[in-house]
Design brief:
The protein is of the alpha/beta class and 193 residues long. It has six helices and six strands; from the N terminus they run E-H-E-H-H-E-H-E-E-H-E-H. Strands 2-1-3-4-5-6 form a six-stranded parallel sheet, with helices on both faces. Its EC number is 3.1.-.-.
Length: 193
């Protein structure tokens, strides 16, 4: 069974993020859900952004590093939206990554915002909706295509719809059918790492 760390999205560690982790746990995997906001959750993306990017914002890189410091090296790093920044950074820079699941966001592997090339032998899945203003509209889908094309074990899954944070059952953006399919695909990856 896989050992996974799932980084929450910009609204915090919501009940819907915990529910997604619980789905993966029910399949026998260990899923860690660090709370980088110290218990705070936010009602909107804008409120979460004001907290996480505003004056006095937490140092999310340091908090994420601390969250995984005591965990084994062979983790699958997963993130939802802004949580992808931590998941992808750690998958690309912390030795021993077993895989990565990037939901609704993807950093480029070349150019100005790049962390660097994708590590050899680390499988990756990227999931997002085709009309999501953030994933499709801000270039993440293009970064995902570049990433997947650069590795022998990369998959990009695009779902019909315009919702962001569609896998969070505690938010109005939740899409049950897309989340079921996402979880089926993620569990397939976790079963083989």
């Amino acid at each position: 069974m896989a050992d996974v760390v799932l980084f929450h999205h910009i609204q915090g560690l919501t009940p819907g993020v915990v529910a997604l982790a619980d789905r993966w746990r029910a399949a026998g995997h260990t899923v860690h859900t660090p709370d980088l906001y110290g218990g705070r959750t936010f009602a909107s993306i804008q409120d979460g952004a004001a907290f996480s990017q505003g004056e006095g914002a937490p140092d999310l890189d340091t908090l994420a590093d601390e969250a995984v410091a005591g965990l084994p090296a062979g983790l699958v790093y997963a993130g939802i939206s802004s949580g992808v920044m931590q998941a992808q950074r750690l998958a690309q820079t912390r030795p021993g990554a077993a895989g990565a699941v990037l939901c609704e966001s993807c950093l480029p592997i070349s150019g100005e915002w790049a962390i660097g090339p994708w590590p050899d032998g680390v499988p990756v899945q990227v999931h997002g909706m085709d009309a999501d203003e953030f994933f499709a509209g801000e270039g993440d889908i293009d970064a995902a295509r570049e990433l997947v094309a650069s590795t022998a074990d990369g998959e990009l899954f695009v779902y019909a719809g315009d919702q962001h944070l569609f896998e969070d059952s505690s938010l109005p953006s939740y899409d049950a059918a897309a989340t079921d399919l996402l979880s089926e695909r993620v569990l397939g990856l976790l079963a083989r790492v």
